[in-house]
Every structure is written in structure tokens, then in C-alpha cells.
Specification:
Blueprint: H1 2-71, H2 73-106, H3 114-137, H4 143-152, H5 154-157, H6 165-180, H7 183-192, H8 201-215, H9 221-226, H10 243-252, H11 261-281, H12 290-299, H13 309-323, H14 331-335, H15 337-342, H16 346-352
Length: 353
């Protein structure tokens, strides 16, 4: 009996120990679960905070550009002008260098497009104009002076790559207005040599052309071509023009006057002739875009403001028709085409007066 009682007592003690151990295990398990829940909740809150901070940082970066624009509008404007302008200038400069190499290799312009020839004509002027800004900006702290100054005088210190659309239109008008000032002196030079033309049927035709220009109208293409021989020899051949006459022609074409006026005029006539050939080679004036038409007419001395595309095509076709019948000996005729076809044009008169 005693042994049985002891056995029962030992069993009860063992069961109580087991139950207490189980209870401890359950408590530990609960504590562990609680700790896991707490840790998970803490990590979740930490991730939320981190995500919030990152999102706010991203939003700040996105809005930082706007913030700079609001706080420093002049600095941002200057940055945009020069970053975009330098990019466009370098792109055109690479094209210009490749064109120079192409000319050296091919010995001509026959493989160049109209747009490439126009760029070839324009880039030297742009390079000279922007050169002081690029040189002075390389001097330590020079950019703090030259960049604001260039923005104040963009027409004189910056090339067209740095101009806005509005500035390009405005400066083109100012440039053409300055060029048109020399139309009348050129017409006077032509009239002054009328009596040097030998008496003939051509002289009468030439007298009629001068009378038409003086009375406010333009001669036709056929009338101009009928007097072509006067520009192939005396008195209007390029070698026979007076020093002042050549100076007026240079200014009318937007070229600086220099000592080598005849050489410059001959080279510009050659480039104009090549542009005309490129237009004809590419399909004529009918395929030119509105912007291309405006640029082509501006180069040749016509104000295109308020002109339709068809008006520009009709005017440019007159020039091309004359150019198609010109050779190197008659470059002087091509140089005077702005007088024959644009002297009395209503848009030019509006610009002058």
C-alpha cells in the first residue's frame, strides 16, 4: 500500500512538473510571439518612415527645378540659353567642318544640299560673333561677367544658336532693314552708267528697266535676261564696278566691307549660284517648307512678313529663273537681282518706311 501511495505521489509530482514546464513553454512561446509581433510592427513602422522620407526626397528633387526657377529666374534662364545654344552651335560646327573637308575632297558643292550650303555660308559669321564670349568665358571668373553681358547684347555677342524664336524674327527684320538702306545707292550707281552703254537695242531695253524700277514696279525675268550681256562686260561686269558700288553691294548682301571687295562679291555670287542650283537639284521651290522659303527669301533680300507660301515661291522662282541662265562671267547680274525683284516690293517698302 505504501509503495503504491508513493508511486501515485511521484506520478502526481511528475505530472505537475510536466504541466509547469508546459506552462512555461507556453508562456515563452507567447512572449516570443509577442516579441515577433512587436519586432514586425517596429520594422513595418520603420519601413513606412523610410518610404515616406524617400518619397518626400523624390518629390523635392522633382520640384527643385521649379523652386530654382521661382527663386533664381535669371540664373535659370541664362543656364538654359547657354546650355541649349552651345549644344546647337557645336552640332553645326561639326557639320561645318565636315563640309569643309567634303569641299576639299570633292572640289565643289555638287554633292551638298541647299541646307548644307546655307549653313556653310552662315557659320563663319556666327563663329566670329561668338568667339569673344567663348574666349573670355575660359578666363577664371570671366563667365560671371561675359555671360550676363552677352544676354544683354545677344545680337552683337551671340550667334543665332542662342536666340529665341522671337529674337530670331526680330533680329532678321533689323538686319534686312539695315541691308535695304543700300538699295537706292546701288540703283543710282546703275543709272549713272547708263550713258556708258553703247547705243543699241539692248541700251533701250536697259533704259526701260531703270525706268520701271524708278517708277515703282519691277521688270520681268525675260526683260532682265535680255540685258544680261551688259553684266558680262562693260559697264556692269564685276571687274568694272566702282569701289563705292562694290561697297554698297556688300552691305546690301549683309557682308562687311573690306579691302578685297571684288573677291568677296565674286565668292558670295558663287555661293548664291550654288544655293540656286541645289534648290533646282532637289526639286525646285515647290518642295521647300515655309521656314526654308522664309530663309531663302531673307538671304536674297526680301521681307517675308505677311507673305503666303505661294507668294514666296513665285518670287523665289523669278530669282531661280535668272540664276539658271547665269554663268561665272555674269555673276554681277546675280548680285543685282535684289534690285531687279525686291527694290519696289511692298513688304520691303513697309519695312523701310
Amino acid at each position: 500500500m505504501i509503495s503504491v501511495s508513493k508511486l501515485i505521489l511521484q506520478c502526481n509530482r511528475s505530472s505537475s512538473i510536466i504541466s509547469s514546464k508546459v506552462q512555461c513553454l507556453n508562456i515563452n512561446r507567447c512572449l516570443t510571439n509577442e516579441r515577433l509581433k512587436h519586432t514586425t510592427a517596429f520594422k513595418s513602422e520603420k519601413d513606412k518612415i523610410r518610404t515616406y522620407i524617400v518619397q518626400r526626397y523624390i518629390n523635392y528633387v522633382k520640384n527643385y527645378k521649379k523652386l530654382l526657377q521661382d527663386r533664381f529666374p535669371a540664373a535659370i534662364h541664362m543656364y538654359r540659353v547657354f546650355s541649349i545654344g552651345i549644344k546647337d552651335f557645336l552640332s553645326d560646327l561639326k557639320t561645318y567642318i565636315s563640309l569643309r573637308l567634303k569641299i576639299t575632297k570633292d572640289r565643289g558643292f555638287s554633292n551638298m544640299s541647299r541646307q548644307e550650303i546655307e549653313l556653310f555660308v552662315k557659320m563663319p559669321t556666327d563663329m566670329w560673333r561668338i568667339a569673344p564670349v567663348l574666349i573670355l568665358s575660359a578666363v577664371p571668373f570671366g563667365n560671371y561677367i561675359i555671360f550676363p553681358l552677352a544676354l544683354m547684347k545677344p545680337k552683337k555677342l551671340l550667334s543665332s544658336h542662342f536666340w529665341s524664336i522671337q529674337q530670331r524674327a526680330e533680329f532678321n527684320i533689323e538686319d534686312l532693314k539695315e541691308r535695304l538702306r543700300y538699295n537706292r545707292p546701288i540703283l543710282r550707281c546703275l543709272q549713272a552708267k547708263l550713258e556708258l552703254v553703247p547705243d543699241s537695242e539692248v541700251k533701250e531695253k536697259w533704259r526701260r528697266i531703270l525706268a520701271l524700277l524708278g517708277s515703282g514696279v519691277h521688270p520681268s525675268v525675260n526683260e532682265v535676261l535680255a540685258c544680261k550681256e551688259l553684266f558680262c562686260k562693260k559697264p556692269y561686269h564685276l571687274s568694272c564696278l566702282s569701289y563705292a558700288h562694290m561697297g554698297y553691294l556688300l552691305k546690301m548682301l549683309g557682308i562687311r566691307r573690306s579691302l578685297f571687295r571684288r573677291k568677296k562679291l565674286k565668292y558670295r555670287a558663287f555661293l548664291l549660284f550654288q544655293m540656286d542650283k541645289a534648290i533646282a537639284r532637289e526639286g525646285g521651290v515647290d518642295i521647300l517648307t515655309s521656314e526654308a522659303l522664309k530663309n531663302a527669301c531673307h538671304i536674297r533680300g526680301l521681307n517675308t512678313r505677311n507673305l503666303s507660301n505661294q507668294d514666296m515661291k513665285d518670287w523665289l522662282q523669278q530669282w531661280i529663273s535668272v540664276s539658271a541662265n547665269v554663268d561665272a562671267n555674269a555673276y554681277s547680274l546675280l548680285l543685282h537681282c535684289p534690285i531687279f525683284f525686291a527694290y519696289n516690293h511692298p513688304q520691303n517698302w513697309v519695312l523701310k518706311y
